[in-house]
């Protein structure tokens, strides 16, 4: 955002005169568009004057850079919390609910003078939350939250990979990479798969070379997945 200044943002958004002592909690999520695994979000309150050359939107960093910054944030943050919404809850309540609920939980876990997050959400939480499009590249505490959440979820998906290596979660982190989509069609679904994304996948099988007659019902994919949920022997 051209001309964005954090001081002006805090002053105008939260109605404070002296922004320098304002404890701003930044929040961001990761995993919203994944086919599998939980939704993860983090909330971070940075100390005044916190700087790091790699503090930016987590998507613009390498895995190593994210891990270095996340470690520094965990060590120096005034406040830091991570929240997860399980695949079961996503399948039960929907992704829209999950994307709001994960932030509602974080607001209750972190003490701050003001709360903000990346995106265009309306969050009914214990304290008001201001949502800012592109905030993960503009507000340092949101950038930090995006990095902490990404590092946490990547580690979680590597652990889940051990239970179901056929899906390649250690590398694709549960997102819809071609190898992941092909594995779903070949091996069925796993309990960590999100139903809405799998249903969409079945509608897009032409992308993988399947014709309409080759469509596999979701129930059959689930049955196949139950037999392979533990991965190949």
Question: What letter string, H or E per element, gives the SSE order?
Answer: HEEHEHHEEHHHHH
CATH homologous superfamily designation of the largest domain:
Ribonuclease H-like superfamily/Ribonuclease H
Instruction: Please outline the major beta sheet.
Output: 5 strands, mixed
State the assembly state of the protein chains: single chain
Do you know the CATH architecture of the largest domain?
2-Layer Sandwich
Which consecutive residue ranges, at least 5 long each, have pLDDT under 50?
A: 210-217, 224-233
Q: How far apart lie the N and C ends? A: 51 Å
Tally of alpha and pi helices: 9
Query: What do the pLDDT scores average to?
Result: 88
Radius of gyration, in angstroms, nearest whole number: 20 Å
At the third CATH level, what is the topology name of the largest domain? Nucleotidyltransferase, domain 5
Question: How many runs of DSSP E, i.e. beta strands?
Answer: 5
The class by helix and strand makeup works out as alpha/beta
> Helical content, roughly?
40-55%
Number of domains: 2
- Content of β-strand: 5-15%
What is the molecular shape? elongated
The CATH class name of the largest domain reads: Alpha Beta
Q: Could you give the order of strands across the largest sheet? A: 3-2-1-4-5
């Amino acid at each position: 955002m051209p001309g964005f200044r954090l001081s002006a943002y805090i002053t105008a958004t939260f109605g404070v005169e002296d922004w320098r002592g304002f404890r701003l909690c930044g929040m961001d999520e990761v995993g919203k568009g994944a086919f599998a695994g939980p939704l993860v979000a983090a909330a971070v309150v940075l100390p005044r004057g916190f700087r790091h050359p790699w503090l930016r939107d987590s998507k613009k960093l390498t895995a190593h850079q994210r891990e270095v910054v996340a470690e520094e944030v965990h060590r120096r943050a005034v406040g830091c919390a991570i929240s997860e919404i399980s695949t079961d809850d996503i399948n039960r309540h929907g992704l829209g609910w999950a994307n709001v609920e994960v932030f509602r939980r974080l607001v209750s876990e972190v003490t701050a003078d003001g709360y903000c997050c990346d995106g265009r959400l309306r969050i009914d939480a214990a304290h008001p939350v201001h949502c800012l499009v592109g905030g993960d590249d503009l507000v340092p505490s949101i950038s930090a939250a995006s990095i902490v959440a990404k590092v946490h979820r990547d580690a979680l998906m590597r652990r889940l990979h051990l239970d179901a290596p056929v899906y390649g979660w250690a590398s694709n982190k549960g997102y819809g990479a071609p190898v992941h989509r092909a594995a779903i069609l070949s091996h069925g679904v796993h309990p960590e798969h999100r139903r809405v994304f799998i249903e969409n996948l079945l509608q897009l099988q032409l992308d993988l070379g399947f014709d309409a007659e080759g469509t596999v019902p979701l129930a059959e994919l689930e049955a196949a997945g139950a037999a392979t949920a533990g991965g190949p022997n």
